[in-house]
Design goal:
- The protein has 419 residues and is of the alpha+beta class.
- The chain folds into two domains: 33-171 and 323-417, RlpA-like domain (Barwin-like endoglucanases); 173-317, Barwin-like endoglucanases (Ribosomal Protein L25, Chain P, Beta Barrel), CATH 2.40.240.50.
- Helix content is 26%, strand content 23%.
- The protein has helices at residues 33-36, 44-53, 88-101, 105-112, 121-137, 141-151, 207-211, 235-243, 271-277, 288-297, 302-305, 397-404; strands spanning 57-60, 152-157, 166-173, 175-178, 188-191, 227-231, 245-250, 255-263, 313-317, 336-338, 349-359, 365-378, 388-395, 408-417.
- The chain has a six-stranded mixed β-barrel with strand order 3-13-10-12-11-14. A four-stranded mixed sheet has the order 4-7-8-9, covered by helices on one side. Strands 5-6 form a two-stranded antiparallel ribbon.
- The termini are far apart.
């Protein structure tokens, strides 16, 4: 049977971000090399400290903007024209969501165990409230940045090289066609969290053991009766497991959303990398369209490669609510990030700087170096270590197209009030 794509949007291309050996995309030069790179790396006199003591975050002064480096400033907050980026109101909303989280017992427990000296829940709360005040009263991006220089310090991630280099990828909420009941066409389910999941013995069953080689054997074992929604294409529920959420257009004409509810204790294994390991595709230059084309030409091989990923994700219906992060607050497009929550401070204010893709008026995709104030509100199975950030881009096709080509090196800083 010919493999066909049945999503409402073009099939998500986010698998690209999990491939090993991807080279960061190029970007246009906006300023001198010292402004673009050197000023934003961990200062050399602090790099030796990073190598000796192996910290996660290095405290440093805020970066002063070079005069000709507009990418230093979060300009979109003050652009009057209506565009696809989140504006000041969206950032304030995201801050308020983090403040709500920081009052929970989950946050109290997280910060009681947080390992970076000087970063406490109380300091994060005060920093968010003061930043919100500055954001609302500042008349320009430059004025806001100058206020940050006066009142805040940066805690910079040591990154993957102890110099501050962080690999940025992006994710989004896909939109798929689905059914509440199985039919001859809609055969492949996603599953709700088992009510007895906490009593499951470890090691947990693998994906292969749970749903079988063809993805249709869940009703034979522990997943029986836990089906939540059905899809016409095996790759769709698998892609939702990678994204962690989805918006569904149902066959009865209504829409709903599903979100992450739990997962088995296995690390994600990339099917793209497995294709390369088997010599089916070259790792260098691999993109999601190439992967899709391969499975369109070899549909039975989905049953070879998907079972190789032992991890498995469970979902819950959220009845139209927006995608949520791991701290149980709604994610804000362009203003929420995912990091390794065993290392980074949950709910905290951060500044990211990297090359991201933007769709131009002529429809072309162009990468530009930008700085963005964001909130750390999520995590991910493939987001491990101090050198990884996943950037939430929103819902639908445009967000998916942008997410699929977001692969770049940049920097990550957490902003906290001076003691």
């Amino acid at each position: 049977m010919k493999y066909r794509l049945t999503t409402i949007i073009s099939l998500p291309i986010i698998l690209l971000i999990f491939l090993v050996g991807i080279q960061p995309l190029g970007y246009r030069e906006l300023s001198s090399p010292a402004c673009r790179v050197n000023k934003w790396d961990i200062p050399k006199f602090l790099q030796s400290q990073a190598k000796l003591s192996s910290p996660i975050l290095i405290q440093r002064s805020p970066v002063s903007c070079c005069q000709d480096d507009l990418s230093c400033l979060d300009q979109v907050l003050y652009q009057p024209e209506n565009n696809q980026l989140a504006d000041k109101k969206a950032l304030v909303t995201s801050i308020n969501r983090s403040l709500k989280y920081l009052q929970t017992s989950q946050a109290i427990a997280a910060y009681q165990e947080y390992q970076v000296i000087g970063i406490t829940r109380d300091r994060v709360i005060k920093s968010l409230k003061r930043f919100r005040e500055l954001l609302l009263k500042s008349k320009s991006a430059k004025e806001l940045h100058q206020a940050i220089e006066r009142e805040f310090v940066y805690y910079q991630s040591v990154g993957k090289d102890k110099k501050g280099t962080v690999l940025f990828t992006a994710y989004y909420e896909p939109l798929y066609l689905a059914s509440r009941a199985p039919t001859a066409e809609f055969r492949y389910p996603v599953y709700r969290l088992p009510p007895d999941f906490n009593s499951w013995l470890q090691p947990h069953p693998t994906r292969l053991e749970l749903e079988g080689t063809d993805g249709l054997q869940g009703k034979q074992g522990k997943l029986r009766g836990l089906e939540l929604f059905w899809f016409p294409d095996r790759l769709e529920p698998y892609m939702i497991q990678i994204q962690g959420s989805a918006r569904l257009q149902l066959t009865d004409g209504t829409q709903t959303t599903i979100g992450y509810a739990g997962n088995t204790a296995y690390n994600y294994k990339s099917i793209g990398r497995e294709l390369a390991n088997d010599g089916k595709l070259p790792l260098e230059g691999m993109t999601m369209p190439i992967i899709l084309d391969y499975f369109q030409q070899h549909p039975p091989e989905l049953n070879v490669y998907i079972p190789r990923d032992p991890s498995f994700v469970f979902f819950q219906e959220n009845h139209g609510a927006p995608a949520q992060g791991s701290i149980n607050v709604a994610l804000t497009p362009e203003r929420s990030i995912a990091t390794d929550k065993s290392l980074m401070p949950p709910g905290a204010l951060a500044l990211i700087r990297a090359a991201f893709p933007f769709i131009q008026a002529n429809g072309e995709m162009e990468h530009q170096i930008v700085s963005r104030y964001v909130l750390d509100q999520d995590t991910g199975g493939a987001i491990k270590g101090a050198g990884r950030v996943d950037y939430f881009l929103g819902t639908g096709k445009i967000a998916g197209d942008r997410a699929g080509v977001t692969v770049s090196n940049g920097q990550l800083y957490y902003l906290l009030l001076k003691p």
